[in-house]
Amino acid sequence: MDRNADILVIGGGMAGLAAARALHEGGARVIVIDKGRGPGGRMATRRVEVAGHQVSFDHGAQYFTARDPAFRAVVAGWEAAGVAARWPAAGEEAWVGTPGMNACLRAMAAGLEVRWGLRAEGVARVDARWQVTAGGESFAAPTLIVAIPAEQAAVLLAEPAPALAARAASVTSAPCWAVMALFAAPLPLGDTFRAEQGPIAWAARNGTKPGREGAETWVIHASPARTRALLDLPKDEVAKALLSDFFAVTGTDPVVPLHCDAHRWLYALPEPLAGEGAVFDAALRIGIAGDWLHSPRVEGAWLSGRRLAALAGDEARALPA
Asked: Is there a contact between 290 and 147 (Cβ–Cβ < 8 Å)?
C-alpha cells in the first residue's frame, strides 16, 4: 500500500531538506526519502572509536559560506541554536556545523517526515500521481522533487522524465578521495592546507573546529586528478598513498597514525548548469534541485532547493484536497 503525501522528496541532503523545509512550512505534507542512515550527504560526519575514545571527522564538505541574504538569515538561526559557528582558520566567511557538519542538516530535518535508509529504486507516473518504490516500500504524491547528484538523477529519471534526465546527464562531477587520520600528537602544521596544484587539494585539522573534541584528527582531500588515478583502488591502499602525499607536499616528517581510513566521493565537485538554479515541469509536477543546478557549494544547494520549493509550492497548493 502506498504512503501518500502532497509532495515526495528524493534526497535528504542540503537541497532536498531546504525544499522540504520550505514546503512543510507552507502547509504541504512532505515525505523525504534518503538512502543514508541519517542527515549528512556531502555534509557528513564520521564518528569512530579508537582506544575507547570517540573521535569525529567531517570527511565531506569542510565548511560553508553564507552570502545570500536569505541564507545568511538561516545561518544566523543555526548559530543562535548552537548548531553552527564561525571557523576563522578557513577564512573570515567560513562556517561549520557544530559539533559536526551534519548538525545543520539535523536541525533542518527536525519535524519533517524523513525516511532514512531507503534508496529510491523506481519512479513511475501512475494516474496523475508519482509513485516511488524504495526499500520494499511504496510512496505516492502528485508532486515529486528529486534532489540527488546529477549522475544519479540521470539514471533514476531516464524513463519517467527523460527531459530532466537529459539535463542531469549533461553534468560532469569530479570525484574526491578523502582520508581521515588520527595522530597521537599535534603535527607541526597550521590548521588548514590548500593547494591549486599537486596531489592534495585540501587538508584540515578537524579537531580544532568549534565544538569538536580537540583530538589531532585530520581530513585530507585529494585533488581530482590524483583521485582519478586512485579511483578504483582499495581504500586501505588509497589512504596509505594519500597520507604519503600529504607528508611530502607539507614537508612534514611521516608519522604513523593511530587510525586511518578513506572514503570515496564519486560526485564531489559538479560543473553546474549555468543559470538553471532549479527546474520544475509544471505539466508533470516534477522538479530537480541540487548544487549542480546552481553552484558547487553548500549555499548553492540550499538556494537551489528553496528555488524549487517556490516553483513546486504553488502547484501543490492548487491541487484539489
From this structure: yes
Residues whose CB falls within 8 Å of the CB of residue 165, separated by 6 or more in sequence, listed in order? 153, 154, 155, 156, 157, 158
Coil, strand or helix at 273 = coil
CATH C-level class of 3-44+102-171+273-318: alpha beta
d(CA 252, CA 77): 40
Q: Which of 9, 269, 27 minimizes the C-alpha distance to 150?
A: 269
Q: Residue 36: how many CB atoms within 10 A of its CB? A: 18
Cα–Cα distance, 72 to 223 (Å, whole number): 29
Q: What's the grid cell of residue 31?
A: 515525505
pLDDT digits (tens, 9 = 90+) for 32-83: 999 988 887 889 899 998 988 899 999 999 999 999 999 999 999 999 999 9
Phi then psi for residue 168, to 5 deg, are -65, -40
Q: How far apart are CA 182 and CA 205, in angstroms?
A: 10
Tell me the residue type at 28. Answer: A
pTM: 0.94
Cell reading at 34: 534518503
Q: What is the pLDDT of residues 238-282, one digit of tens each?
A: 999 999 999 999 999 999 999 999 999 999 999 988 677 999 999
Q: Where are the domains of the chain?
A: 3-44+102-171+273-318, 173-270
Q: Do 292 and 273 contact (CB within 8 A), yes or no?
A: yes
Fold annotation for 173-270: Polyamine Oxidase; Chain A, domain 2 (3.90.660)
